[in-house]
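Appendix B. One record, verbatim.
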Amino acid sequence: MRLSVGASCLLHLSLLAAVILLPIPQALRLPPIESIKVDFVPAPKPPEPVQQSEPAVAPKAVPSAPATQPVTQTPRPTPAEPPMVKAEKLYSAQVLADPRSRGARKALPQLAPQERVIQLCNIEALAQLRRQETGFQPDMVVPYAMKDAKVTDHALEAKGAAMRSRKHWYGLAFNCEVAPDLKTVVAFEFLLGAEIPRDQWAEHDLTLDDGPAD
């Protein structure tokens, strides 16, 4: 569901500084051929002798072609999708506790429950990506960029999200669960995908200038 992005942009701007300055830790085989059953055929009776002026020359025996078992090609398995990275530590509460996030802390309670879930999960996504994806400087996450996200009062499933880093957009999928009081994220997992070609940005409302991009 494509929800309003106004509140999203406001919260991204107010939380980005807190997220950025948080410390980043170092961190064919063919199937077996079945046995071929061989039956021995009784030898034929020798022919009656025939009087001939010249001895008959026996024709050369032609070896029979060996029987072969047809080989069945085993189809190649479809590559499995990599598993999501499950977060061992969660950061949304730490980001919101930062003094620079005062505006966001005041704005969150005024949002509808589902919009609040989206914002909390976006904060967690940005923090997780900064810590676990070396070389990226994410400054924005759009959970419904490539396809609609599934959001409830306590969870967000975003299989077609997008993440912006250094003025490039990348595919992203994540699952996020929020506490019943809608104050913190309690579970998060994600999978970062390939870069999204620039000629697809407009189709998915992915912009370059609506926030800082290092």
